[in-house]
Design a protein that fits this description.
The complex is a heterodimer of chains A (about 325) and B (about 55).
Chain A lengths: L1 E6 L3 H11 L4 E7 L3 H10 L3 E2 L12 E6 L6 H11 L3 E3 L4 H8 L2 H7 L2 E3 L8 H10 L4 E10 L4 H12 L3 E4 L2 E4 L6 E4 L6 E6 L5 H6 L5 E7 L6 H10 L7 E12 L2 E12 H17 L11 E3 L7 H10 L4 E8 L2
Parallel strand pairs in A: 1-2, 1-4, 2-3, 4-5, 5-6, 6-15, 7-12
Antiparallel strand pairs in A: 7-13, 8-9, 8-12, 10-11, 11-12, 13-14, 14-16
Helix pairs in contact in A: 1-10, 6-11
Chain B lengths: L1 H31 L7 E7 L7
The chains are: A alpha/beta (about 325), B alpha+beta (about 55).
Amino acid sequence: MTTALLVGTGAVGGRAARQLIETPGIDRVLVTDRRGESSAALQAIMQVEAIEWAPPQALPAGVGVIAVAVPDDEDLAVARCALEHGVPFVSAADDHDAISALLGLDADARSAGVTLAGGCGLAPGLADVLARHAAAALDVVDAVHVARAGVAGPSSATVVRRARSERAVEWRDGSWQDARSAGPELVWFPDPIGALDCELAAGGVDLVVKAMPELSSATFRLAEPPARGVGERLKERITGRSGPEGWGATRVEVHGSRGLVRESIVYGVVERTAVAVGTVLALVAAHLSGASALGAPAPAGVHGAAALVDPVLFLAELGRRGVMAAAFEGVAVA
Amino acid sequence: MVGTLLGVKAFRRGVFVASLAVLASAIVKMLSNRDHSQPENGGWRQLAGPDFR
């Protein structure tokens, strides 16, 4: 039995807490949030213990894993604290800068024998696992193209809007290069999302490339978050809570060959964004804590979900918890 | 009589401007769709165990 510390009790944190509670092998879930009332509210409706904790304070006794669902600029301090205490760390942060900063701790984590997992959300995160799952069906993998629609709360929407407007990079021929300004591309997600214009962005496939450096091409695209009305923004500001959650989806295209035949495999997932992200975060945390065996023992260092879990075991557990992956069967038509 | 002629001229001018607007919007729409991939023919099938393929 182990204790999990969940930092951040917003839209994603709430879902992750629910999943952690329902994990056999995790008998205690501590939750903390800079807004103390948020974690207290969670304690009122779930079997979690709200505590006041923030890095660099000493970790509460017995914590076996730290799961983090806070804005991207706040998770690095928690990661450093986890490293100091030798406790596995999982973050749902999906921002390019946040993932790059976490990767900067790779050498320290390896030497300390600690696993730090970054980008454990919908995409990056679940998309990485799907990419690895597709790659396992091919002899040679050339390209991975990931797209995501949907955000989990206002902080996530801000990150996506910024990522869409900033300089995009893509992995091409063994190095990161400035993405050509090709404009938006129409990406077909599973229903009910359907087709959306997606812009190239940085950050979403960093950890996929780290796990599969033999790729010759990898790109990440993001759909525009749905606009919120003035009334909705005002309500969020007053209550501190986001409005009704929208759908989120990811689509992963993997191109390669099997024998002499060229093949493309397309996987996708559609779910309420916060539910999907929270579930992925909790499952990776459960695996790192040893509460759930979803793959081989995690290697030390900074890794994405794809390098930490067995895709089949992970997808099976994900499906058991209601997040179902799908395969696209069909062809592009003129 | 003069008033009628002026009305016809204004009407023709309006039709001309509207035609230009329609043409311009069609060109803009065509250009903005240039980079889009083609729609797909097929569907999504839920993955199931034991191999989730």
